[in-house]
């Protein structure tokens, strides 16, 4: 699909969904007036992150006092089936991230309520749900419709049917999804951010999510090297964070 075709399909998709008009307005501003916003402070934060980054294994051991090896053994069949489904999917989206970090964050907090932004195939959703189902907990997910790809039917594609009773999926931008989620449940054990990559989008969401994280809860943000939003947020709130290097990117994680 050419870039012009993709943009046109996306715009038409927005026009068909009046409930997404607020996000369309934000997208237009972000891609015109605030075009540099996505990379604000990127060089500063990559240097900061590189200087303190540890492996996922080290982070889980340090924060949650467990080893990560059992996850791949205990859920080998589930993960293999999920990988096969991703491979067969005709629409390409983001692949699995630091699944052990998410799973053991839920185990550490005895999570019953988790919120995530960004779903795609549903790898992070799967990791959280494998833990939540032990306590009949609920995962609340925010994910924008895939307007240019006709890929909506594949959102959460790798999540098995037997886990979906513990999952509530909100198909709007974060600024519309999160208020709906917080109206349903106000306090969360684990927060996982992996959606709007812009500096302003992150700063807004980080502030909102942090308010709803319980004391002792775990905050996780993917791709913190895109700009300095995560670093600035942590410094503003005097938060001592762990940085995880995973497949060439950086993840931020801390316990509130």
TrEMBL record:
Keywords: Methyltransferase, Transferase. It comes from Chryseobacterium pyrolae. The keyword Transferase applies. GO terms for biological process: methylation. The keyword Kinase does not apply. GO terms for molecular function: methyltransferase activity. This is Class I SAM-dependent methyltransferase.
């Amino acid at each position: 699909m050419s870039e012009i075709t993709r943009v046109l399909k996306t715009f038409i998709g927005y026009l068909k969904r009046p409930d997404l008009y607020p996000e369309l307005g934000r997208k237009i501003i972000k891609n015109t007036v605030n075009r540099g916003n996505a990379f604000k402070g990127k060089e500063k934060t990559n240097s900061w992150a590189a200087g303190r980054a540890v492996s996922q294994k080290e982070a889980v051991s340090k924060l949650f006092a467990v080893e990560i090896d059992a996850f791949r053994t205990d859920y080998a069949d589930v993960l293999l089936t999920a990988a096969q489904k991703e491979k067969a999917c005709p629409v390409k989206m983001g692949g699995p991230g630091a699944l052990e970090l998410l799973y053991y964050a839920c185990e550490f907090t005895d999570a019953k309520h988790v919120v995530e932004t960004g779903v795609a195939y549903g790898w992070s959703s799967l990791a959280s749900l494998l833990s939540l189902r032990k306590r009949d907990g609920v995962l609340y997910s925010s994910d924008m419709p895939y307007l240019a790809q006709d890929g909506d039917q594949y959102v959460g594609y790798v999540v098995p049917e037997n886990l979906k009773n513990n999952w509530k999926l909100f198909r709007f931008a974060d600024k519309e999804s999160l208020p709906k989620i917080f109206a349903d449940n106000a306090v969360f054990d684990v927060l996982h951010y992996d959606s709007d990559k812009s500096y302003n989008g992150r700063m807004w969401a980080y502030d909102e999510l942090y308010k709803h994280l319980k004391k002792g809860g775990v905050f996780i943000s993917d791709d913190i090297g895109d700009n300095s939003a995560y670093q600035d947020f942590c410094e503003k709130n005097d938060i001592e964070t762990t940085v995880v290097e995973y497949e060439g990117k950086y993840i931020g994680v801390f316990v509130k």
